[in-house]
């Protein structure tokens, strides 16, 4: 029976639902066997899971350090008051109320995988204690911190990952303008106070630089009579040759031209070597002499947004597992299950996770399964079987495995119409290098969350049949679902009152029209009608009365 | 010439304006002689002054620790998220932009009255320095702090005077509910976390208690499944017999009945003796035995709002002056000029100031001026003259000086048709005791501010004539204006989804209708159209989606 189900991997199981006479008894049973689903995190990933769950299927508990979920793509706007922070957040309790779930405000610090217990540190209002929360399935969606790249002095920088970050930035920006307006401030000090430096040319960095620029143009110069336009400087330091390098070249160029016109100074191919409390030190190569030169920018505001790194819980999780070697995130299989953890118990999604891309890691297993005649070589027929297996294990490899014959011949260096194990290993390694991991974006996290939510809902729907047919919980994922697949819906960024879109095949950029299109996309992505309305109101209020200059 | 003007105290001076041919020269002169007006504070008083000034009349500088002005009457609503804090504030820079004025974010710490220099401490972003700001006229509108009444442990209490206070309260309230929801919290601890204590039965205390109650009823119980209605307790401790005792008796009773029905526990005639980190200790007299008993309420939230006290700058100002003896505020004359300071240079308005009520302080002066025949006694004709002088010095005495003949006869104990100096002194002392000082409300501060703004504008308008006729700056106030008079426009308070109004002669109370009337009054009092719109939006958003439960 068991194997009968397992061969069917389609989404709709062809099993008739068991009919019971005593509905109430049924309900009681359901309650008693309701598994505990614990979700760590309150971001895009976690919300994605919650969206797709049905009430009554699981005992749901969400653990998050903040009581709300944040609409992160607009954090750069909130950092200068273009939108209000309250418009970007939605209380998690209001979201889980639908599922009659529970919420614990705390930070996950450790996990006992054998006992299926999550250790949570609660430190609210001066109280600090540890509680242990049992789980049947655990979803790790804890996000990431900023990568340091070993640069000293990053404690002098701001990050922009949370609402508190946006609030702190807004406070510092307002303080800088107030201090620069004081009669006793020296000209050098004014210059430093009015110098804004952004390190990192990704969407967050670019959008923040653009927002600061717009803020000065549209509001500051009107209300701070002592501040001149020429005194304000904005620098964007990028280690690569272009900004927005994950976007299409056109968009990258458009953004660069836009900044050039608006006096945001772009420093590309420049590397920050240190940040001090009152300056940023960076090196760049002189294009003529080829020599590396060191420069210093005096500043009182530095934003650091140069890629992601693991936060403490993700680090701890990786320590506990034998085969976790990824530097920036915890590795999962194609079903988003954390590699090395008991199957079907721990999942990881969003910025803290990365789906394995290396087929070479499965070398032995693949050879064993596909080398039917056990001759230690892989002929073409066997290779076709192997490609099928690789595609199932690593769906992201699919686009690189379309021309199987060509691939086979390319690596069959001695042309004996079969691949030796050495040749095969080389092929798998090269294949792994070709696959790019999914980017650390809200879109990926949200899709992964929805995938898991749907998967859990399907498992819950078939719980009875699984029981009857002795399908272990650890084996149910593959039965009800295909591996996770990411559908890129386009990227967008907002630069100086215009929006740029990247839909892979074509890109779009423009002025007011594009901006409104962009905004409507954002509205539809929002979690609740409430925040959608609030955002719309913010934009109208700002349109009429300008940004709020109050320092809260 | 000089005396000619001074005898005319009406508002419109009958002096023709000097005509000049060279308008531009005139303008330059005006600029050169533009006096420096410095306003300390960013509340109702300061905004009142700014509202009535004309651009170009003064070099205006506003000094305030916060960059915004606050709509204080709605702070209790902001403390639980019924309205957003951002909707209650307006950047001061946007208000002074009309006057092309300057803003300095700092705290006044000292004043050199001879050199006309104000010492301001600036402590933004870790920087702390002192600057000296010169003034020709200085308006002190620094507000007040909460009175301690010598109760120990007030560091464990919240105040509700600023936006930061409201934010801190909101954070604590949300923390309490989150902590009470934790699986590890003991029943006793839950009881303490869900116990809210308000000390002080004035409008702030009453409204805050009502807002916390509504918040629990309308939002908390829906989203915190672990919290039962019976576990939440709200206590209001009032030292007097009734709450809202500055309002009419009807209103006070209405509020008490309302609280009784809604399980807000009123503890009247109770005195707080100490506040500890986890409880409030109070004493009350047993109505039967007459014995004083001590009680303890375990709690994690205490609001302290029991009257006002001087803040450090007001204290310093009083130290510098010889005749300032008032305990709670700096005393001014009827023109709001600080008593003892060089005339026409320092004014004080709002909660930090009180207008003198004691005619006895002017005893010697009054006798000298009114005792025409110098016989050391005051006959009725002389007394009539004196009453006229008292009314001008202390306008608030007016309502007690209507029946002059009766008053005269009452104190003329030996019926010799004249008052001896002893009899007169007794009369003046009794008169002073009858006058109640103005309450420390937004309405008073705002009217005082507007009065000063109008007064300064009139002085500026007549500056040239004053110069031509050698009227000293210190003497101009009396020339252009009558003393300040307060017009009570009614008080209102919001209790449990209904509003109570007190218009002196009649009072009003009721449900939804009254509440909307109340809200429209508040909207019209708002400083800017922007905050008015934001407040309206807040009320609509809250009506549809409830309060925001996020802890920021």
Characterization of this structure:
Two copies of one chain form a homodimer. By secondary structure, the first copy, chain A, is an alpha/beta fold. Chain A folds into three domains: 228 residues, FAD/NAD(P)-binding domain; 154 residues, FAD/NAD(P)-binding domain (3-Layer(bba) Sandwich); 75 residues, Recoverin, domain 1. Chain A contains 19 helices and 26 strands. In chain A, a hairpin with a 4-residue loop joins strand 24 and strand 25. In chain A, helix 11 crosses helix 12. The N terminus of chain A is likely disordered. Chains A and B meet through strand 4, strand 5, strand 8, helix 6 and helix 19 of A and strand 4, strand 5, strand 8, helix 6 and helix 19 of B. Chains A, B: GO terms for molecular function: calcium ion binding; NADH dehydrogenase activity. Chains A, B: This is EF-hand domain-containing protein.
